[in-house]
Amino acid sequence: MKADEHILKLVHIGLKYRDLLPEKSGIYYVLDEQSIVWYIGQAKNLRSRWSGNNHHRLYQLQKQRKKQFTIYYELISQLQLDAIERQHIEQYNPQLNRTKVKAQKLHPTETLLRETLILIAPYSFVLGVESPRKEDPKLIEDSINWRDAWRVQKAVLPLRVIHICINLNQLGECLKENDWHSLCLFLRKVFRQRNNYSESWACKGTLKYEYSGIFYVRRLLVNGFAIEVYVTNQETADLIQEYELTQLAGVNIRVINEAYLAIIKNKCQLRITGMYVYYNNQNQPYEEYRRRAIERLSPYKEDLVKLLFNEVLDISKLKILNV
After folding, report:
1. Which domains does the chain carry?
2. pLDDT, tens digit (0-9, with 9 covering 90-100), for 149-165
């Protein structure tokens, strides 16, 4: 049923701005762009009711991708909430109030990691594992000074960090068109935001710039570890003559041994846009900072990420390289 003048005169706010709702009790009405009433509910605290992804109808609303929803609300005392809500549901007969709640099935973060690794493992290797950054006050200080505070975010500081590099040349050889656009398109699809996972890959840079051929480091916090993924070019990969095979979260992936890690430490640096051979230039303090990030690595020798859920994966779909 369409909203009448009573609802349309109320204060309202777009669904995506729901965190701006007042922290007061009231009745709320969810309308689409045609003023159709989709849902009516009550809340002792409107903002808390809609904060984050807490609302039990949010998933159903978000699935309506062609609809633009707005929350209209009126402030009502808690003593009147039940009666007014019941009255208005009967009056407007919203369609979602008549349906069962459809819960969104959330996959654990370890499943996202495993799926990602299956897609990138043929063109990637584990560079090493880094001790918790909270143990290195100098790294924390330099990261803040060089405007790289993302590296030392609070959630990351106490975790060991597993570093993975994607060899762009190997990846390009497997694509139909070996160019920057195809490479970035594939990687954007691999690390895209997914609504049905409990966490997503975080990105250091601005995604829109990746269209110009830049891939920023990705990070995922999973089962007590931080996983950071970089890209690297053939010049760096040529420093490594052989790999060993290991596992990460139960997925087979290549790893470099201690000898080759020593070579990488001596000749390379880690940037937010990838791992590259180090060439001394005038901005030496900053270059040394980027080298310090790689010097803290130790060899990765065994599968450190223990699976807690071990969901069954449909590998036949994941292994299709399709851009």
Report:
1. 5-98 (3.40.1440.10), 109-318 (no CATH)
2. 999 999 899 999 999 99
